[in-house]
Amino acid sequence: MINGKKVIVVLPAYNAEKTLEDTWREIPPEVDEVVLVDDCSRDNTAVLAQKLGIITVVHEVNTGYGGNQKTCYRIALDMGADIVVMVHPDYQYTPRLVTAMAAMIAYGEFDSVLASRILGTGALKGGMPLYKYVANRFLTLVENILLGQKFSEYHTGFRAFSREVLKKLPLDANSNDFVFDNQMIAQMVWFGFRVGELSCPTRYFKEASSINFRRSVVYGLGVLATALRFRLNRWGLASSPQYMMKDKGLT
């Protein structure tokens, strides 16, 4: 626990067998529980997770990256989490920062924390391809303009959330694909949650998961659509279910 708050790390996994153990070994002792949701992997991710003693849930059919996260958060809330930290088990981000991220929430400074690869010089030094870096910066600029924010990036897969955020956001209205991450940030801004950032190094290597170029284009278009939809809702020109608060965001 951190400041009396129960911390649970969730690992949305798909074909993560080669990198899971390295990720798991860097999860700090302040974490109370670790949960892995295997999204119908074609390798032995679930077997290895169980061998490591990780609480493991296996989807019988692939639900997509966003669908995986929805399951992760439901389980963590059911387990009584006060703070949930989502870590990709592909070892691209270091879980050693979980304590710092969770503490920023546990001591009441933020409702959510994003680990940014762009703050500092970590992204390109860590091997981020130049085209991805340029796309990241462009999309972030557009999103900051349309959402009225000053985030360094919207595309990190290393995030921490308070229980209140996960209970109140209408996450079931979001996509089951990769744009889920982006929609979630837009929702937090819309509902006035305090979102902080923390600089995080990153690693790019063969085993680290990455979407292909076609999926990247689809993601980019989805990001732009999310930002535009946010602005249209803010102007009262649209009414999207993503921005309709519920008493409990996940059902």
Strand content: 5-15%
Assign the CATH architecture: Alpha-Beta Complex
Helix content: 40-55%
Class computed from helices, strands and strand pairing: alpha/beta
Strand order of the largest sheet: 3-2-1-4-6-5-7
Characterize the main sheet.
Answer: 7 strands, mixed
Overall spatial form: globular
pLDDT averaged over residues: 93
Distance between the termini: 26 Å
Rounded to the nearest angstrom, the radius of gyration is 17 Å
Count of structural domains: 1
CATH structural class? Alpha Beta
Number of strands: 7
The CATH homologous superfamily? Spore Coat Polysaccharide Biosynthesis Protein SpsA, Chain A
In CATH, the topology is named: Spore Coat Polysaccharide Biosynthesis Protein SpsA, Chain A
Taking pLDDT < 50 over at least 5 consecutive residues as the criterion, the unreliable ranges are: none
Q: In sequence order, what are the helices and strands, one letter per element?
A: EHEHEHEHEHHEHHEH
By DSSP (H or I, 4+ residues per run), the number of helices equals 9
